[in-house]
């Protein structure tokens, strides 16, 4: 089930007219009406200024990443089609192509997933499809087929004409998901009431995450055992920055910041590959494999700091985990307040977390919507960096681990409690921000331990 993801405020599209002035002759004695565009032009100008500032920040961040990422995977991007990217191994072998669908969803070209049955597999082969892999995910209660189709069959309409009816509900594009954090953010703080990252509990809780590979040799993890397994193609380069930062918040030890769960046993399913010098992606199949592995490890709380499109298979996996008492905490997304809902955060059985700065101001690029449940500190957070040092990170990815830690600590003392009971506890602990009660910006409010 998907949460109600309607957003208040602006509609999905905004019509803006610039540079238009009109002078009207007003008859003597006539009442002059207030300019009806005045209340529109002001917020439009604010949006324009924010966009310009964001572009400047991105340019600075791109320059920083270009300097850091000298040893990246060889990526070929066609100049005439920026929505198409061929991923190659470090030896130059073409592995697959990423494309962007007309609705903006990133996918692996001509690849699909479906629940496996003998009838479905037989029909796929008869159609000339290439069955790339068959995976049994027992903890998720599913066996999946990953297959590649000829170009003329690369649509749901075409495939449903040929596949058995019982397979239609699980048929899914092979979507690609992205991490939700950025480097140092310049969002200013205007209050003396500054939040600080703080420890949630000393218990030896077991907690999971699905992310990039962690740089386990970082000094922050010297005394903290981390179990991680990679689910991406070994021929692709695996990025380290995002997973290292998230793990640093959860279990890292440093004199510069407080670990959320200093004694936790952390399990990480590494699912990301480097797309180019600036971006990283995680395909749906490895993502589901990682969730299955964490469920088999009997992890009760999983932090998922990534976002992407809805998939019926992703939704089914989330529901299966919830039925087993496994809690998913997800980043709300960094696509801006007008962006549509993202997944898995918008699924009913997932706790969606947005980010605020130290003065309680909302992170300027955080998604907004009715699916937002809680807010936590996520702007200019000090954590472990892939270069072996510590530094600032921002984004809803940095906020989600706070709520994941709070959930893990509470469940440690309330074994067997339901997701509804956990939500009730978190709602009772949250500090209301913004509009009274639940709102689409802060959800139920701030999760923070004094």
Put simply, the count of helices is 8
Largest sheet: 10 strands, antiparallel
Number of domains: 2
What would CATH call the homologous superfamily of the largest domain?
Peptidase S8/S53 domain
Protein name: Peptidase S8
Organism: Pseudidiomarina homiensis
Keywords: Hydrolase, Protease, Serine protease
Family: Belongs to the peptidase S8 family.
Strand and helix map with partners:
Layout: H1 38-68, E1 75-77, E2 84-88, E3 94-100, E4 106-115, H2 118-126, E5 130-137, E6 142-148, H3 156-162, E7 172-179, E8 206-211, E9 226-230, H4 241-251, E10 265-270, E11 273-274, E12 280-283, H5 284-296, E13 301-304, E14 306-307, H6 312-323, E15 327-331, E16 350-356, E17 374-377, E18 381-384, E19 390-393, H7 396-413, H8 419-429
Parallel strand pairs: 8-10, 8-13, 9-10, 13-15, 15-16, 16-17
Antiparallel strand pairs: 1-2, 2-3, 3-4, 4-6, 4-7, 5-6, 7-12, 7-14, 11-12, 18-19
Walk me through what this model shows:
The strands form 3 sheets. Strands 1, 2, 3, 4, 5, 6, 7, 11, 12 and 14 form a 10-stranded antiparallel beta sheet that branches. The protein has a 7-stranded parallel beta sheet with strand order 9-10-8-13-15-16-17, sandwiched between helices. Strands 18-19 form a two-stranded antiparallel ribbon. It is globular. It starts with 37 loop residues before the first helix and ends in a 21-residue tail after the last helix. The protein has helices at 38-68, 118-126, 156-162, 241-251, 284-296, 312-323, 396-413, 419-429, and strands at residues 75-77, 84-88, 94-100, 106-115, 130-137, 142-148, 172-179, 206-211, 226-230, 265-270, 273-274, 280-283, 301-304, 306-307, 327-331, 350-356, 374-377, 381-384, 390-393. The protein is α/β, with parallel strands linked by helices and 450 residues long. The model is unreliable at 7-33, 62-82 and 188-193 (pLDDT under 50). It folds into 2 domains: 75-175, Alpha-Beta Plaits (2-Layer Sandwich); 178-429, Rossmann fold, CATH 3.40.50.200. Belongs to the peptidase S8 family. Keywords: Hydrolase, Protease, Serine protease. This is Peptidase S8. Residues 204-445 form the Peptidase S8/S53 domain. It holds the Pfam family Peptidase_S8.
